[in-house]
Fold this protein.
Amino acid sequence: MTAGTTLLAGFFLALALPAAAGEWMSFDADAFAEAKQAGKVVVLDFHADWCPTCRQQKAALGTLLKRPRFAGVVGFVVDFDRSDALASRLGVANLSTVIVYRGGREVARSTGVTEPARLKALLEKALPEEGSAPAGRGGPARR
């Protein structure tokens, strides 16, 4: 294997790996479908770089996703200016819209929310109660 081939293989491997906790991936329809199919909690953030509210929201969500409670959450940034078809299909009319999915179903949505406590509450709607078994693995933990 040549150095160029090794470098190229490493590049494609990096693309295939999920983002680290708290990091966002650019929206990819296949990765989104796979995450939903796998039963992951998925966040879509309809964002534009020029939007101050979007930047605040993305920073607050990024901080939340770094917390252990949200370690398994998969975050996708959707470029609002280039995703008309997706926005239309999902009923997104405004920038800074966040949609949260669990098990392939939408469980929460907000627009324009930047306060960390409100965003945390939005994400919490998709997670089992603390002390409960993870979704799909039995009922609540016995006390």
Remarks:
- The two ends are 56 Å apart (CA to CA).
- Confidence is low (pLDDT under 50) at residues 5-18, 133-143.
- The longest strand covers residues 41-47.
- The helical segments are 3-16, 29-37, 52-65, 84-90, 116-124.
